[in-house]
Amino acid sequence: MFIVTGGAGLIGSAMIWQLNRAGTDDILVVDHLGNTTDKWKNLAPLKFDDYMEKQEFREALRAGKFAGCRIDGIIHLGACSATTERDASYLIDNNFRYTAELAEFCTANHIRMVYASSCATYGDGANGYADDESSLEKLRPLNMYGYSKQMFDLWAKRRGMLKSIAGCKFSNVYGPNEAHKGNMRSVVMRSWEQITTAGKMQLFRSYKKEYADGEQLRDFRYVKDAVKMVQFLFNSGAGGIYNIGSGKAESWNKLVNAAFAALDKPVNIEYIDMPESLRDRYQYYTIAEIGKLRALGYDAPVTPLADAVKDYLQNYLNEDKHLGDE
After folding, report:
1. Please, which pLDDT band fits residue 206 given cuts at 50, 70 and 90?
2. Is 11 inside any structural domain?
3. Number of domains in the chain
């Protein structure tokens, strides 16, 4: 049995889709569906054995109800992914403590575990973007979300757990099954929404002279590529921290131009003011260096940005489809 936490989310549901494609459906899905989104729709086309609510799962884990169960591995993708979340106590419990509970269980029972860290831990990039455990202490995240992820990375390192468990520093993942994310929807999805309704796309102005408007750079990663990387990392048995990205820094303008092209619409970008609350926490450049994963043997090509955007917009958003509806 595999356990996938956050299994109804963007990366989690894509992970189940990828496992299904590999012939695996003995999966326990853990998430919190609630009543405010249609996240459940992400699960409908997928194959899995059972579902548990997150709190029920944590209580069962603490009570020892999984002791003796045959568990092939835990892929822990359940977390609050909102970079704008300010409730530090909530983030520490949901992103740090929850992950620590699972790591302790997996380590004690010799169960393979891969978990979601984040490229938000790199902060402004002053200390680089290399997924090197020796430099973890130097990183300074710009928001509480990033720090909650950093807390666990450091906690696991201090206990020697990174020799057996693997952390995935995801970078700007986008793709099918993200509609439930509200304000945290990707710019790709927002482009589709704005272009199809208003014929234009809004981007934040730059407040640094070295970056023109829309030329702020990000490492964008299509979710289909991201879960292939996670599956490879899981199967490798390697421990440590690994970037999950494209290894390329590309501009918002390039991303949005790809969206206009995929929708066969003329480019019409409007640059708007960035909220004051974001200006001192905004990353102008990110890149997820993936040489470490390549050295481990991962040799699959990165889907070019324009091709990935085209697949997402034309085959999923335009068709109102989810992964598994293919």
Report:
1. very high
2. yes
3. 1
Catalytic residue list? 145, 181
Domain with residue 36: its CATH number is 3.40.50.720
Which residue range is the domain that position 159 belongs to? 2-174+220-246+285-302
The pTM assigned to this predicted structure is 0.95
Please state the three-class secondary structure of the chain as a single string.
Answer: CEEEECCCCHHHHHHHHHHHHCCCCCEEEEECCCCCCCHHHHCCCCCCCEEEEHHHHHHHHHCCCCCCCCCCEEEECCCCCCCCCCCHHHHHHHHHHHHHHHHHHHHHHCCCEEEEEEHHHHCCCCCCCCCCHHHHHHCCCCCHHHHHHHHHHHHHHHCCHHHCCEEEEECCEECCCCHHHHHHCCHHHHHHHHHHHHCCEEEECCCCCCCCCCCCEECCEEHHHHHHHHHHHHHHCCCEEEEECCCCCEEHHHHHHHHHHHCCCCCCEEEECCCHHHHCCCCCECCCCCHHHHHHCCCCCCCCHHHHHHHHHHHHHCCCCCCCCC
Residue 13 lies in a domain: yes
Task: Answer whether residue 34 is part of any domain.
Answer: yes
